Amino acid sequence: MKITIDSIEKMIVHHVGNKSNGEGVGFSEKNVNLEGIEQDIKKLLRKSFEMDDLFRFYFESTIDLNPIYSFCKTIFNDNDSFIAQSKHIAKILYEKRDMDFLKSLETKLPQSIKETCSVAFSSGRYMEMNTKGVDKGYGMRWLVNYLGYDMDETIGIGDNYNDVEMIKTAKLGCAVACANDDIKELAQYVTEKDYDEGAVSEVVEKFILGENHE
Fold first, then answer.
1. Checking DSSP bridges between strand 117-122 and strand 126-131, what pairing results, if any?
2. Is the Cβ–Cβ distance between 93 and 16 less than 8 Å?
3. pTM (2 decimals)?
4. Per-residue pLDDT tens listing for the chain (214 residues)
5. N or C: which end of the chain has fewer CB within 10 A?
């Protein structure tokens, strides 16, 4: 199933700020005017994902058989409540920076979702669902094979729960200083710096360039 702008019936955009930085939530009261928006979306995608390679991700069977799609579709069964439902989602993203709460949601997922999807968490407020077995560890193995390298040459650096499989898969798994303690326990090295203070450069200088480099 190819999704195009013409196939989108409704779209609404809310601004969800970072609560820990004192940012708020900006709610829209009306749907986006879809006329002429296709070029704007294409410009946004080009700006955000500038790369030489183009990858196309798709679900080979009927989209309705995709468990994630079917689960999300139930949220918008009532077309008259589209705006109200979208506001609820934005509020949850803003307010529920609570990992225990997110993990409790995982236990309530339908069995069909649990059997076909991998669940991960990030940023203290996102529960991510991918096809079973698809995670950053899988992505690392695929990329290493695609580029012709060896897994013994890999370093994985992460700070959140969706990085766990990558940290475990890499030859050298590193956790950033701001990572939760249970993630740090899985890593072979924990950086002294935070992710916005140069954690990646710390790992590169220590394990690739060598501590005595100039």
1. antiparallel
2. yes
3. 0.54
4. 455 666 777 788 888 887 777 788 888 888 877 776 777 776 665 655 555 555 555 545 566 666 666 666 766 677 777 777 777 767 666 656 677 777 787 888 888 778 888 788 777 777 777 778 888 999 999 999 999 999 999 999 998 888 999 999 999 999 999 888 989 999 999 999 987 888 999 999 999 887 655 5
5. C
DSSP of 196-210, one letter per residue? TTTHHHHHIIIIII-
* CA distance linking residue 58 with residue 73, whole number of Å: 18
Q: Which residue pairs from 198-207 have beta carbons closer than 8 angstroms and sit at least 24 positions apart in sequence?
A: 199/157, 199/159, 200/157, 203/155, 203/157, 203/174, 207/155, 207/172
